[in-house]
Known about the structure:
Elements lengths: L9 E4 L6 E2 L2 H7 L9 E6 L5 E5 L54 H29 L1
Antiparallel strand pairs: 1-2, 1-3, 3-4
Amino acid sequence: MCKHILNAQVSVRAQCCRRWFDCPECHEEVSDHPLRRTTEMVFACKKCKKVFRKDLGSLEEQDEFCPHCDNQYVIEAQEPTMEVGFETEDIRKDSSLVRDDRVKQKMLDPLEAMEEYRKRYAKQMAMLEAAEEEELFKD
């Protein structure tokens, strides 16, 4: 898997060392010699896993596709981009940093929020008092 080109459709066999690479940068990272340039390339399609040769000196429009499965391998490369994000502990414990854009965020009126909090607090206190009374009657 190439970390330089995210949507690589073929692997290329380097003529200098006869090893397979997804891009010239991958060859550069692993090898101690420069990549030998040539017009005839050997490709391995990642879709059908078959090998084929192409002469890049006379490349035509139909040569942009794998001869076995018609997978188009000459496409615009998608390269990784840098992203700025937040690092946090387990997201299941603290989901305050995550906002789901698919859900419309409801704006709360501060007075309504305070009233709702009072109701929940009163309900919890009533349940607590009921539990205490139950314990008194048991004794």
